[in-house]
Amino acid sequence: MYKNLAGRAVLAWMAACFLSPAFSQAQAPKEPLKIGFVYVTPVTDAGWVRQHEEGRKAVEAALSGKVKTTFVENVPEGADAERVIRDLAQQGNQLIFTPSFGYMEPTLKVARDFPEVKFESITGYKAAANVATANARYYEGRYLAGIAAGRMTKTNIAGYVAGFPIPEVLQGINAFTLGMRSVNPNAKIVVVWLNEWFDPPKERDAAMALFNQNADVLAFHTGSTAVMAAAQERGKMAVAYHSDMRRIAPDAQIVAVTHEWGGYYTQRARAVLDGSWKSGNVWGGVKDGMIRVGDFGSKVPQAVQQEVLARQKDIAAGKLQPFRAAAGDVRDNEGRVVIAKGVQLNDEQILKMNWLAEGVQGRVGR
What we know:
Elements: H1 2-19, E1 33-38, H2 48-62, E2 67-72, H3 79-90, E3 95-99, H4 104-113, E4 118-122, E5 131-136, H5 138-152, E6 157-162, H6 167-183, E7 188-193, H7 200-212, E8 217-221, H8 226-234, E9 237-242, E10 253-259, H9 262-274, E11 281-284, E12 291-294, H10 302-316, E13 330-331, E14 337-339, H11 347-351, E15 360-361
Parallel strand pairs: 1-2, 1-3, 3-4, 4-5, 5-11, 6-7, 6-8, 7-15, 8-9, 9-10
Antiparallel strand pairs: 10-12, 13-14
Helix pairs in contact: 2-9, 3-4, 5-6, 5-10, 7-8
């Protein structure tokens, strides 16, 4: 009897062991987290989408074996975006990044139908329980680039090729203008609106038109490298945006304002993996490593480089705010006071910006 009881106990212990996860040979390995990315233009060597592609690669490198990423490129904003985002959710992606302002509404619409999927609306501002928003303070880099442009210009005229008159673009134009005029009060900025994010021929034509108006340095808020190539061709100067573009314009590039998404994307993927992901709103800048100014061209004197880098440290330390009126009232280009002396705009005011600074030729959207 005791032998039978002992035998049964051993059998029960063995069964419990083999049925437990530690001993079970039948337990399937944990599947990697599937992450989808949607890109508004083709993946090119430089530009907006290139920086997000570098961010995707950073996630794969940091979380090797734990994630599996995919991307769909050249997806127009609107109905096509909704279709692609929905397809990615249906394919089992549990985290989907949608880095374009026009993807905001399609992302929200799809998110309502896939409550278990996490979405990251990059440059969007509307959140939901499973939709987080994130953006970078591009204007901080624009201000620094304006300092470099103000030191380098000979004609005191800068051109600005702009996509759409949304607050993010207006912030960039105004910060660039304030930075430029902080070291060169006579500087003027001429804006050309394209109403396109990515149209290399139109971007090139706009750049050439601005050079013909005596601008000798350009900045831009569009998606290709066409402005940089035009500056190289004409023997003029330009500020690279999104990424370093010295390969395209080795002689023309003054400085690059680059966006660094790898850290944020990796952090958010880790949060999904460990179950800590929550919706929220992140707006990071120089201090957070999301914006960086550097990659100076060969024609930029060391003194200018050092000045720009010193001001970058000031922004990181909170000593310099592009939209603080430290020296006097800041006016728009119609003469109205938009920032009183000693006042700093808060985030809500910056996010709703709808004016152009004194020194800018043109109107919002025209």
